Amino acid sequence: MGKENQFVSQIADIESDFPQWYSDVVLKTKLVDYGPVKGTMVIRPYGYAIWENIQREFNARFRENEYENAYFPLLIPMSFMTKEAEHVEGFAPEVAVVTHAGGEKLAEPLCIRPTSETIIGKMYGNWIESWRDLPLRMNQWANVMRWEKTTRPFLRTSEFLWQEGHSVFASAEEAEAETQKMLAVYEEFSKNVLAMPVLTGKKTEKEKFAGAVATYGMEAMMHDGKSLQSGTSHYLGQNFSKAFDIKFTDKDGVQKYGYTMSFGVSTRLIGALIMTHGDSRGLVMPPVVAPVQAVIIPIAAKKEGVLDACRALKQSLTESGLRVVLDDSENSPGWKFNEWEMKGVPLRIELGPRDLEAGKMLCARRDNFEKSEILLDGAAESVKALLKEISENMYRKAKERMDSRIVNAETLDGLLEGVNTGNFVRAGWCGCRACEDKVKEFAQATSRVMDKTNSVKKCVVCGKESVHTVFFARAY
């Protein structure tokens, strides 16, 4: 495993105080800092680089699915929020309102967007006239504000960054299919980009998005067995179409309301990957989104030819499309090892006089601390292959952990024991809101998503025949 990292003493123990470990790590590695306004965060360059890589990977997938990026205003007339009754009721406690501007009281208060269904619905209503205008698909990268009472960087903050896709279709079937398709895009992204296994499925009525007909979620298991909602896709039916007059003239000459859907992920994904992959030594970055994929550490840097060889190696790897840093600082190699290890860089490359003589470099993996020698000739392709192997191993390790921590329960006591020991609990549910509320009251756990098959036959609360099998968990 290598020498003890001198930075480890500066972070809490991951097993005994996971929440404090998380806070220590995001601050110590300079991902984020607290903003001057309570509940806000400053995303520092190392953290923002992860977000930029997430954006790049998503944009490629969105283009494949015929989405175009656009931008809509931050300020929304309060009257827009009140047009969809369930929507305004759901977001009212979190909405920040602007009442004065330019030294005067506004004729109508403006809310700072908590989400953009209303203002995008208004514009879609202006733009759509005929069936020829459909389907209409757009995506927005933006900041949103929800006045949260309890906050934690990336996981829950008053202001955060996200993407929100919004589509209009001529039929309910198309909109529902798109809702499922974009959830599948999220699931694929989570696996192949973040190396993070997830459970996907439909949310209960209690947990669905305010104003949706149906919400589908993506839940990831964190190191402590709690769940983190990492993405959602919503079938909105005609709720927002009727509120904002999104009509089109169909092929039969009749005016009809469109069917809409929306989907979104946020900077919460950064928190998710930290809490899925992190270990006692700090961050473990998935290679696809890691700000630095490999760090080169010169060994005996003052020896002739070492730094020149390191610079040439960095140039070669960078030109091949890899994100590489050469640490030629005055710090000792051991200090550098520990610092970059805590920052979670997937691969450390050591290069010294003996390596140069042998025409090789030593590579140390962050995911399992294994070391191997790689020929300097053709190094770029070898490093890429190693990074792919690291990503696959990270996913496999996280998937095995999640699978081993999903347990079944037939009683409330069994459910409580399951979540108390850091598990997701699969249990039957009769569909009654009172039984769902009872689970939260008794076990401080909530329904995350419904299993795609109703395999459990009895409700965990009342014992009646189950309508759904649900994954229950404590959640961030």
Give an account of the 3D structure.
The chain has 476 residues and is α+β, with helices and mostly antiparallel strands. It is built from 14 helices and 23 strands. Strands 3-7-8-14-11-10-9 form a seven-stranded mixed sheet, with helices on both faces. It is globular. The chain starts with 17 loop residues before the first helix and ends with a strand.
Architecture blueprint of SSEs:
Blueprint: H1 18-28, E1 32-34, E2 41-43, H2 45-64, E3 68-70, E4 75-77, H3 78-81, H4 85-91, E5 96-101, E6 104-112, H5 117-127, E7 136-145, E8 159-169, H6 172-192, E9 198-202, E10 214-221, E11 227-237, H7 239-244, E12 247-249, E13 255-257, E14 259-266, H8 268-277, E15 294-298, H9 306-319, E16 324-326, H10 333-342, E17 347-351, H11 353-358, E18 360-365, E19 371-375, H12 379-404, E20 406-408, H13 412-420, E21 424-429, H14 433-443, E22 446-450, E23 468-473
Parallel strand pairs: 3-7, 15-16, 15-17, 20-21
Antiparallel strand pairs: 1-2, 4-6, 5-6, 7-8, 8-14, 9-10, 10-11, 11-14, 12-13, 17-18, 18-19, 21-23, 22-23
